[in-house]
Design a protein that fits this description.
Elements (H helix, E strand, L loop, with lengths): L4 E4 L9 H7 L6 E4 L12 H4 L3 E4 L11 E4 L9 H7 L2 E3 L6 H17 L1 H9 L18 E5 L3 H12 L3 E5 L12 E2 L4 H5 L4 E4 L13 H6 L5 E4 L8 H10 L4 E4 L19 E3 L10 H18 L9
Parallel strand pairs: 1-2, 1-3, 3-4, 4-5, 6-7, 6-9, 7-8, 9-10, 10-11, 11-12
GO molecular function, one term: oxidoreductase activity
Organism: Halorubrum laminariae
Keywords: NAD, Oxidoreductase
Length: 316
């Protein structure tokens, strides 16, 4: 792989300034090119990108198909046309492994908000309203059960935090091998059974053909009526219309959602107005150290590429 110039696409600014990453990588003996927004997303203005041998990016652009290597600053790679990249011989790597701490803490925050009624108190504060919960309204999460759907690096971060808070944890993944801190590991074919006694169903799976729409009406019917759905995966993993119906009918108690079928979430969505729904703007993995974590993966892969070694976190 030729690797003389590494580009940093402007789209990474959704998580950190491109210049910050360039500074983090300034110790490399390689040209670093911060690409401005003049690089077109339709492939017609690809000249700045094609002067690079590799790119670090959040979005996919048509011109990237001509590069040798693309690094996604996210763990998910559903933004990228994998078949086309594979046919073109483009290496694709991702940032899996860096999100577990932030995602785990965010999920723990959602659970604590629901159980300690913090989301209600915040709304009351905005209205300057002093309103204590009913005697049986607040509860503690210790001793409750969570089902973590997806036991990769994101799921591992969730398991560690919830276990530390006294939550009993089950899991779902393709191969039902034991996982530390997880009482029972189910396969996706056992999903409805896996969620049947869970107070919290936490989604941490990537969006693939197999996972798209996997949380549907049948899964909501299988969940207890006091259960909460937590989605820090991808919006497409959930049938959103079925979720809204389940919430409106009281089939489940509520949901904390960081991702949606359409983003930003349209103002007309019923999810905005539901009392037992927490909406966050796809930021569960945000941390001031995100750029440092991405830089560590990119730096290692630059070293590997120049040494002729296999890239870490390689998807294609």
């Amino acid at each position: 792989m030729r690797l003389d110039t590494l580009g940093i696409d402007s789209s990474v600014s959704v998580l950190f300034p491109p210049e910050f990453l360039a500074e983090q990588l300034s110790d490399l003996s390689i040209d670093i090119d911060v690409l401005d927004e003049s690089v077109g997303t339709d492939g017609k203005d690809g000249a700045p990108a094609t002067t690079c041998d590799a790119i670090v990016t959040f979005e996919h652009r048509e011109s990237f198909v001509d590069l040798d290597w693309i690094h996604s600053i996210q763990a998910g790679v559903d933004r990228f046309p994998q078949d086309r990249l594979e046919d073109a011989g483009v290496a694709l790597t991702n940032s899996t492994g860096i999100h577990g701490d932030a995602i785990g803490e965010t999920v723990a925050g959602y659970l604590l908000a629901f159980s300690r009624r913090l989301h209600e108190h915040i709304r009351d504060q905005e209205r300057r309203e002093w309103s204590q919960p009913d005697w049986d309204e607040a509860w503690t999460i210790a001793g409750e059960r969570a089902c973590v759907v997806g036991l990769g690096s994101l799921g591992r971060g969730v398991v560690d935090r919830l276990s530390a808070l006294g939550v009993d944890v089950d899991g779902v993944r393709r191969t039902p091998v034991p996982e530390p801190g997880v009482d029972r590991v189910h396969t996706p074919g056992e999903l409805e059974r896996a969620v049947a006694d869970a107070r919290f169903v936490v989604l941490t799976v990537p969006l693939t053909d197999e996972t798209e729409g996997m949380i549907d009406r049948r899964v909501f019917d299988a969940m207890p009526d006091d259960a909460y759905l937590i989605n820090v995966a991808r919006g497409g993993v959930v049938d959103q219309s079925a979720l809204v119906s389940a919430l409106e009918a009281g089939d489940i108690a509520g949901a904390a959602l960081d991702v949606f079928e359409r983003e930003p979430l349209p103002e007309t969505s019923a999810l905005w107005e539901m009392d037992e729904v927490i909406v966050t703007p796809h930021c569960a993995a945000f941390t001031h150290r995100y750029g440092e974590h991405v830089a560590s993966i990119v730096r290692e892969n630059v070293r590997r590429a120049r040494a002729g070694e296999a890239l870490t976190n390689r998807v294609l």
